[in-house]
Amino acid sequence: MSLIINALCINCDVCEPACPNRAISQGETIYVIDPARCTECVGHYDEPQCVVVCPVECIDPDPAFPESHDALLAKLARLQEQDA
């Protein structure tokens, strides 16, 4: 499942550089996560790094994008092929 940043975001700038898939960018008012690039850090870390570094706990699972662990690994493989 992709993650989503909620309205509690304070634009502290710590999540964007923590993302190994470059899925996080500055949105119109708060940071946003691109569900096509978010793998919840599966294949990189044991837990999502944006969640680890977020000081206000504003990152939640995005129910609009349910994905299994295997689907997240497959997405990571596709991203690595694209970015090569």
UniProtKB/TrEMBL annotation:
Record protein name field: YfhL family 4Fe-4S dicluster ferredoxin
Annotated ranges, domain 4Fe-4S ferredoxin-type: 1-29, 31-64
Domain of life: Bacteria
Keywords, comma-separated and alphabetical: 4Fe-4S, Iron, Iron-sulfur, Metal-binding
Signal peptide annotation: none
TM region(s), chain numbering: none
PROSITE patterns: 4FE4S_FER_1 (PS00198), 4FE4S_FER_2 (PS51379)
Keyword Repressor: no
